[in-house]
Amino acid sequence: MIKIIFNLILIASTIFSQTDSFNFQSPHNIKLFADYLFCEGDYLRAAEEYEKISTISDDTINFKIMISYSEIGLYQQSNLKYKFQPNSLLTNDARRLFIKNLFLDSPDSYYEKTGSELFPFQLDSLSLNYRNKLISISFLFSSVENIPAEEILYPFELQERKIILSFYDQKKDPSYKSPLLAGVFSTIVPGTGKMYVGEWGDGITAFLITSLFAFLAYDNFKAHHNTRAWIFSGLGAFFYGGNIYGSVAAAQIFKARIDFEFNDGLKLYLEQQNYFLPEYDFCK
Amino acid sequence: MISVNKIFYALSILLLCNSAAYSQDSFDEQYNYAQSLFNEENYFDAVTEFKRLLFFDMSEQYSFSANKMIGLSHKQGAKFSDAIRYLTLAKIQATTSIDIYNCRIEIIKINILRRTISKALSLLDSLSNDPGFRINIDEINYWRGWAYIFSDDWEKASQSFALIDSNHFLTTFCDSVDNDLYSVTLAKVLSHIPGLGHFYTGEYLSGLLSIGWNVLWGYITVNSFVEDRVFDGLMVGSLLWWRFYSGNLQNAEKFALQKNLEKTNSALRFLQNNFQGERP
């Protein structure tokens, strides 16, 4: 009797141990772990794990690999992972992600990438519209000028057009200050170039100091105190020249700031709009 | 003569133990594999494997050790915020006071490395105020000393190491560095006589130039007043002489700070390359 009970325990424990022995590298477990990493935002590790099981024909895995590489800025590598059949449920999403990757790889020259040979799929109306939206955005990032507003706006829906139009207006008529004009202003009246750029405090100070040194130089020459007169002349000339240079530089810095703020605003808008893509809910 | 029954029971017990241990083996193997990656300094993969272990460890048996190792791996990769996050998780999962203490010390060391010194010092204070860790007071003072080293307060560092042993290598080393540093206050006070602060920090050419400029503008200022050109004197005095005089004060301070930085950097390099004891 004891032998029978003992044998039963032994068999049960053996079976139990076998079911409990764990294979960390089974495809199922790799996928579970990769999903966890993906949802944690650890995209590099997630991509590595998904790659281990990428031989399994699973569109969701392929799509997640594309997203993971895209999230860490490896856009070309992400696009290399595009292998979807036209009838797949994720084909439309994958196509748009492919287009987004092409755009993010070089936002300011994406509009040049219009050839169909760049796409491993036929552009349907949905993809075409999405590509055209990003081409319009690319024009806004680029240094290309004089593009008609209609050409930029036509791919967008009505509510998007208002914002895109405001970006377009900023791009077309930026509130730059001319470095040449700033220099000329400061040459005629010291400090006015700085005031033109909006640096009122610096402008007034430059005006007062240069005028003061000019007056002191004049007054000392008049009183025949030549040494001091030359010192004040030298200092006045130094401030005068410095102010002209400073005004030109201030106008250039002003231009760079306007460009930076424009690009930053556009990037922020795109991120808020998720690059006109739907939010995926793989982690909900 | 051993009976067949006895042999049967002995073998059965052996098999039973083996089979019970078998399921745990795969988790142990995973832990050892991750640990070996850590030992090989392959910290990225070590983090992946420890994370894998944590993810599948439903019994939470490895929660402490895996979190701790992830924290240490991140520390080696200089991802200090992540390191602190995982070490804090390890501290929460720790079951013994030694483990809790070790995690807290690691967190302090990371704060020292990332130069959040005030945080490191407050953590050290809370550790030394904890009656359970009174026994570790020497180690706490040791890391307090390092915290002061990284905040360039070599005098306080020396005092902290002296609490462990007045003849401790780091006590004498910090003392010598502290004695070797220029006094920024003295440099500023001396430079009230133009150029003297520069001479004190060994910047002789700058000192001579400073004297020259101050003598020139001082002479022109005084000369203007002597010649009854009061407005000239006021302008030269305020716009030029004062500018060069205050510049001389600022330069003396800047040179003292710059020279001190060179000395402390060289001391830190020495400790990094030659010091055999424990470092953050």
Describe the structure.
The complex is a heterodimer of chains A (284) and B (280). Chain A is mostly helical and 284 residues long. Chain A has 2 domains: 154 residues, Serine Threonine Protein Phosphatase 5, Tetratricopeptide repeat (Alpha Horseshoe); 90 residues. Chain A has 13 helices and no strands. In chain A, helix 12 packs antiparallel against helix 13. The radius of gyration of chain A is 33 Å and the shape is elongated. The relative contact order of chain A is 0.07. Chain B has 280 residues and is mainly α. Among the domains of chain B are: 70 residues, Serine Threonine Protein Phosphatase 5, Tetratricopeptide repeat (Alpha Horseshoe); 86 residues. In chain B, 80% of the residues lie in helices and 0% in strands. In chain B, helix 1 crosses helix 2. In chain B, 36% of the residues are buried. At the A-B interface, helix 1, helix 2, helix 3, helix 12 and helix 13 of A face helix 1, helix 2 and helix 13 of B.
Can I get a quick summary?
By secondary structure, chain A is mainly α.
Oligomer: heterodimer
Largest interface comes to:
A-B, 35 and 30 residues
Shape of chain B: elongated
Question: What's the helix-strand series of chain A?
Answer: HHHHHHHHHHHHH
Tell me the Rg of chain A in angstroms. 33 Å
List keywords for this structure.
heterodimer, A: 284 residues, mainly alpha, Serine Threonine Protein Phosphatase 5, Tetratricopeptide repeat, 2 domains, 70% helix
Task: Furnish the topology, listing elements before pairings.
The complex is a heterodimer of chains A (284) and B (280).
Chain A: H1 2-20, H2 27-40, H3 43-52, H4 59-71, H5 75-80, H6 91-105, H7 125-141, H8 149-153, H9 158-172, H10 179-188, H11 192-197, H12 200-222, H13 226-272
Chain B: H1 4-39, H2 43-56, H3 63-76, H4 80-93, H5 97-113, H6 117-129, H7 137-150, H8 154-164, H9 169-180, H10 184-190, H11 196-200, H12 204-226, H13 230-274
Helix pairs in contact in B: 1-2, 2-3, 3-4, 4-5, 5-6, 5-7, 6-7, 7-8, 8-9, 10-13, 12-13
